[in-house]
Design a protein that fits this description.
- The chain has five helices and twelve strands.
- The chain has about 240 residues and is an alpha+beta fold.
- The strands form two sheets. The protein has a seven-stranded mixed sheet, sandwiched between helices. It has a five-stranded antiparallel sheet with strand order 11-10-9-8-12, with no helix packed on it.
- A hairpin with a 2-residue loop joins strand 5 and strand 6.
- Helix 2 crosses helix 4 and helix 2 crosses helix 5.
- It is globular and about 55 Å long.
- The structure holds biotin (BTN).
- Biotin binds next to helix 1, strand 3, strand 6 and strand 7.
Amino acid sequence: MELHILAGLRGRIEWHDTLGSTNDRARELAIQGVPNGFVVGTDAQTAGRGRKGSTWLSEPGNGLAMSIVVRPSWPLERWGWISLTAGLAVAETLTEWGLAPKIKWPNDVLIEGRKICGILIETVGTAAVIGIGINVNEREFPPDLNATSLGLETGEICSRESVLGEVWTRLLERLEGEPEVVAERAWELLAWRGEEVVMASGQQGRIRGFGENGELTIETEDKLVRIAEADGVRLRG
Ligand code: BTN
């Protein structure tokens, strides 16, 4: 991928033709002390990792697979907000292409229920590695994946480089602000906002907002419950 328009990234990006997992490489670099905002990206990822030990497949040359090392100034007990911040940065980027993305808590990004982006966050000492996989120019997905891409949604060939630059800029800006601002904006873009959901425990309730550290707050018949685990809720019915 050519990286000519990303002047702000000069000295803060490492691009590979092929790499196992950008998160693994970014973790190594985080330990070596790369600065805030350092990006590792690849045209082809051969061992992409998803949440809960799953695999992330991105089509060589068409998907965007990257990891960003961040060193937020937020106190550690507020780092739970990094997840929503990353989802928000991607969702806001996609609105620039005329789409209407939704954030499935904490950070999957969906277009009309179909997944367009997955995010895997790992903490490494005083840094966090934000791994972002965005479907950009893929034209086909196995039906069981329920996925879509920027290209499929817009009918155009989209520049992965522009997507990268926009997500990177928005992410770093949001991390410089306050989590409360992230909360407000992420709530506006949240999928299942106010909807009835079922928790892993079987309890039912309505999504009402976020907790102090970005947890999902659900109002049951008699109390407010906070969910901190991704995949901890499903839509009722
Ligand atoms: C998920 O939805 O389960 C998260 C998927 C995260 C995939 C990205 S692609 C770039 C980065 N490198 C990885 O190995 N995983 C993340």
